[in-house]
Amino acid sequence: SFNSLGAGVDPSTALAASEGLSAAYSGFVHAASESIMDMCGGDPPRFHVRGMLGTTRVEGYARDAENYVYRGLMGTTVVAKAFGDKQLVDQLYAFMAEYERANGHTPPATRKGDAS
Q: Which of residues 66 and 32 earns the better pLDDT score?
């Protein structure tokens, strides 16, 4: 049915993927030691607490920002599904497909399980 979240997706796989993403990105929010040590450098070594403009880190984090936008779109879609707003879900899927194309991603072949 339309209100079934994750129709056709193994819940264990979905949960594992969600937990993996959460663990991977939580360090950037909660200052994991790896992220803190990335801020150390120079001669003499010091912590760059005012940012690291001009370093290789900037490009990587700029690319990673797209992940947060996309995750926000997916989260919004899940909430719309939970509230049973089929029209909004269809609009969000259409927007996500366009977003994926614009950012060089291949959209999923089908999402038919969501439209019933």
A: 66
Both structure tokens of 13: 């796989």
Residue 37 structure tokens:
């040590």
**3-state SS string for 64-102:** HHHHHHHHHHHHHHHHHHHCCCHHHHHHHHHHHHHHHHH
Give which of 71, 60, 78, 69 is closest to 114, Cα–Cα.
Answer: 78
For the entire predicted model, the pTM comes to: 0.49
Which of the residue ranges 28-32, 59-63, 76-80, 83-87 would you say has the lowest mean pLDDT? 28-32
Instruction: Reply yes or no on whether the pLDDT at 29 is more than 80.
Output: no
Rg of the Cα trace of the chain? 19
Cis peptide before 44 (omega within 30 of 0): yes
Distance CA 4, CA 62 (A): 34
For residue 113, what is the DSSP state?
Answer: G
Helix%, strand%, coil% for the chain, nearest 5: 65, 5, 35
